[in-house]
Amino acid sequence: MPAVIHRPQVPAPAPAPESLPAAASSGSHARRAAALAYEAGDQRSGHAPRVTAKGSGYVADEIIARARAAGVPIHESRELVSLLMQVDLDQHIPPALYVAVAEVLAWVYKLEQRSGPAN
Q1: CATH second-level architecture of 2-7+31-115?
Q2: Which is it for strands 74-76 and 2-7: parallel, antiparallel or unpaired?
Q3: Which of 33, 39, 41, 99 could pair covalently with 63 via S-S, beta carbons 3.0-4.6 A apart?
């Protein structure tokens, strides 16, 4: 079961006269996204979901666009995407993220049940 979690782009605040130019701080406001997969084999073997893609800026936009095109659910969570960005690609999520990711997977399951069986 794939899912994409992203942090929406937040506009940079207007700089105060004594602060750095906006370009110097804009990196912290870029859109970020992480994709998760929890496949049947992972479930049967007791493994946690894996981070299958992650990135910021253009890469995040591509992850989100491809997810939308494929009908993959997209969940917005600033906090969770920040934590998932720290997990290496193709690695299972750490135990500290089990509850947060389980909540997202429960949300995905509910969406899938509402939309009916997959084709």
Answers
A1: 3-Layer(aba) Sandwich (3.40)
A2: parallel
A3: 33
Q: Which two tokens stand for residue 91?
A: 């690695």
The Cα–Cα gap between 66 and 69 comes to: 5
- The token pair that represents 28 in the structure block: 């912290």
Distances (CA, A) of 35 to 5, 16, 87, 108: 6, 36, 11, 13
Q: Do 74 and 48 touch, CB atoms closer than 8 A?
A: no
State the Cα–Cα distance between residues 75 and 21, nearest whole angstrom: 32
- At 11, is the pLDDT very low, low, confident or very high (cuts 50, 70, 90)? very low
